[in-house]
Design a protein that fits this description.
alpha/beta, Rossmann fold, Arc Repressor Mutant, subunit A, 3 domains, two-stranded antiparallel ribbon, 10% strand, binds adenosine-5'-triphosphate, binds magnesium ion
């Protein structure tokens, strides 16, 4: 259907990566300076571990994925078969076993992981790559989340000691990139892990308000019809995105543009107006973006829906764990969904993800939601979750 507002609304999706990534040229070129040289002498390359650190929505994920694409192309020109394997620890791994299994699967279906231990999986992966003359760059996104959830699993040990298994032979894993929001995750590492991980850190600073505006303005050009978003509207979205509590998280700006655009369309307006932005801003929470919701498993979505419903009916900003469980059971019944065996763990996961805010067992709420907007926010959240839960 032809839209008066949107040229291509997919260009506002959190998963779309635009051709140009303004203000991340320097980070990209640091990555290139580390890995490009290896392409010229790959047989003798030693793996390099790099950490990428920066707050939410500063382009860590999209820049790394873009870098992987560029490096693979460069390798092609040098006749090297290179794969960039990206795993997101929030999505692909609840335990070391699951994470490594998913890592292996992303490389090949030829390794049967069923009877293998996590260590053996890595070993087999290296042997497979060697046999097929494939080189690999591995990226572990949201590694901070994983080590916080599994402090005893010591995956950094497994992942950084890969050289020791076959000393002297060429190493098909040329590098590993670990992405985290800050260096705080190091407190979960032991000293051996810290030492092999090394100190190569690339920082992704928050975007300033001018930078936010330029980045969003480029996306507006791709996603909207000419003239559909005027300067005033873009100013407002940029201002909200650049200031607290959002603090430069581009994802929130993209969400605002998307929902404000939809609203304008539904109202038959030819333009997205500042008023549309204000209206949707009251309904989204800066701390819960569409991507956060999409990346939850079904247990997570159902629990969040249960929480939103009981918050709404209680009219307060917090409810107790017991009440949440009761509400959860009702929602499960309504959607004919089997309640999670590990309810508390699923709640804990939402707390680690920063979606549920827990002050005490008697006080569970939704992070970052201002009380005045709670009702509107909850209505729109419930709407979205009901659709998601019914479609899953
Ligand atoms: N410099 C940029 N130019 C264009 N778009 C950008 C830029 N930086 C970020 N974005 C967009 O903002 C969104 C968030 O970026 P990204 O997912 O890379 O952030 P992140 O740092 O990985 O955040 P988180 O820590 O929450 O995972 C993406 O949709 C991305 O396309
Ligand atoms: Mg990310």
């Amino acid at each position: 259907m032809h839209s008066r507002i949107f040229r291509d609304r997919n260009k506002l999706s959190p998963y779309y990566i635009p051709k140009k990534l303004p203000y991340r040229e320097e980070q990209l070129s640091i990555l290139h300076s580390i890995y490009d040289a290896m392409m010229r002498n790959i047989e003798n390359a030693y793996p390099r571990f790099i950490q990428i650190i920066g707050p939410t929505g500063t382009g860590k994920t999209c820049t790394t994925i873009r870098f992987g694409e560029q490096l693979v192309k460069y390798a092609e020109r040098e006749d090297i078969n290179l794969k960039h394997v990206y795993v997101n620890c929030k999505v692909d791994g609840t335990t070391r076993y699951v994470l490594f299994r998913n890592l292996v699967r992303k490389v090949t279906s030829k390794i049967s992981t069923r009877s293998l231990s996590p260590e053996e999986m890595i070993q087999q992966l290296i042997e497979y790559l060697r046999l097929e003359s494939i080189f690999a760059l591995l990226t572990f996104d949201e590694i901070d989340y994983f080590v916080q959830m599994n402090p005893k699993e010591h995956i950094i040990y497994d992942l950084t000691r890969i050289m020791e298994s076959s000393p002297g032979e060429p190493m098909p894993i040329i590098g590993e990139i670990f992405i985290a929001k800050s260096l705080n995750w190091h407190k979960f590492l032991d000293s051996r892990e810290k030492s092999t991980l090394g100190i190569g850190v690339i920082e992704f600073p928050r975007y300033t308000s001018l930078q936010v505006r330029e980045i969003l303005s480029n996306r507006v050009e791709e996603a909207f019809n000419p003239g559909a978003v005027n300067e005033e509207t873009l100013d407002l979205v940029s201002e909200i995105t650049a200031s607290p509590p959002v603090n430069g998280d581009i994802r929130v700006g993209l969400d605002l543009l998307y929902y404000a655009g939809n609203l304008a369309e539904n109202r038959g307006s030819e333009k997205v107006l500042p008023d549309h932005v204000r209206k949707v801003y009251g309904e989204i929470s800066p701390s819960i973006t569409s991507e956060d919701i999409m990346s939850l498993d079904k247990d997570g979505k159902v629990i969040l829906l249960a929480l939103a419903r009981s918050l709404k009916s209680s009219g307060s900003a917090y409810i107790g764990l017991r009440e949440l469980r009761r509400s959860y059971e009702l929602v499960c019944e309504e959607f004919s969904f089997k309640p999670a065996e590990k309810f508390e763990e699923a709640v804990q996961d939402l707390i680690y993800r920063g979606i549920i805010d827990m002050k005490s067992l008697m006080e569970l709420g939704i992070s970052g939601v201002a009380l005045t907007d709670l009702e509107r926010f909850l209505n729109s959240l419930m709407n979205r979750l009901e659709k998601e839960v019914a479609n899953d």
